[in-house]
From TrEMBL:
Keyword vocabulary terms for this entry: Phosphoprotein
UniProt key word Phosphoprotein: yes
Name of this protein: Response regulator
Response regulatory domain mapped to chain residues: 3-118
Length: 120
């Protein structure tokens, strides 16, 4: 069974992502974090296979959290979800080895993310 960590300071965003992914991957396990710092702890505790990460959150930026997670777990696949579509954010996400997906979350964006997670 695959495990997805959903990281976003917005509970509504986490619920939307979970609902969309669960619709296409009903057997996956879901865990959530509301900050970058919490995400790093959750990765150590639960060893998820995949992670969706918001960028703009209180405390640590999602890209910084993703960088720390990928340094310790380079096999993990991360998708950066953000309404902040500046080139610098997209470039940083790609430099980390993550994909960048613009918010709002849609069925189409979830399909892109799930495809990224499942491709080798």
């Amino acid at each position: 069974m695959k495990k997805l960590l959903i990281v976003d300071d917005s509970k509504v965003s986490r619920m939307v992502i979970r609902a969309h992914v669960k619709a296409v991957q009903p057997d996956w396990e879901f865990i959530e974090a509301a900050s970058g710092e919490e995400a790093i702890k959750m990765v150590e505790q639960h060893a998820p296979d995949f992670c969706t990460m918001d960028i703009n959150m209180p405390g640590m930026l999602g890209t910084d959290a993703a960088e720390q997670i990928l340094q310790a777990h380079p096999h993990m696949r991360i998708a950066i979800f953000s309404a902040n579509v500046q080139d610098t954010m997209q470039t940083r996400a790609h430099a980390l080895g993550a994909i960048f997906v613009a918010k709002p979350v849609t069925e189409k964006s979830i399909a892109i993310v799930v495809h990224h997670f499942m491709s080798e």
